[in-house]
Amino acid sequence: MDADACPQVIKEILFxxxxxxxxxxxxxxxxxxxxxxxxxxxxxxVEQGFDVADHRIVQQVQVDDLVITxxxxxxxxxxxxxxxxxxxxxxxxxxxxxxxxxxxxNLMQGLRAGGDLIAxxxxxxxxxxxxxxxxxxxxxxxxPRVEG
Length: 148
Fold this sequence. Notes:
By secondary structure, the chain is of the alpha/beta class. It has helices at about 10-20, 50-60, 70-80, 100-115, 125-140; strands spanning about 25-30, 40-45, 65-70, 85, 90-95.
């Protein structure tokens, strides 16, 4: 998980899923994180700096891993390495949609840089949480369990 900006409610869903499905879960951030004591949950703190956490995630991601991130460029990189990416709002990034999302992101970034006022994302909702939990549940139920 790209944990720096991930909502706490999503982290809690992830913690419960890691325990229930016994799936090794790693949170990567450039700040200290509070995580439950569990053989299935670990936290990795990286140095401060632009995209340092993203680089660590890309270095360590394995084929078929799931990376939780709202960072579309990171999602594109992990998908290129054979992993999957899930936005905390529940959008599953795929080879089919990540390049389009990246193009839209870059367009919006360019418009904002040019001074055009563009509204940010909608408030995080219950349906976002539910969509995320559904995708996560689908992913963890098809993974082999970790020997604890």
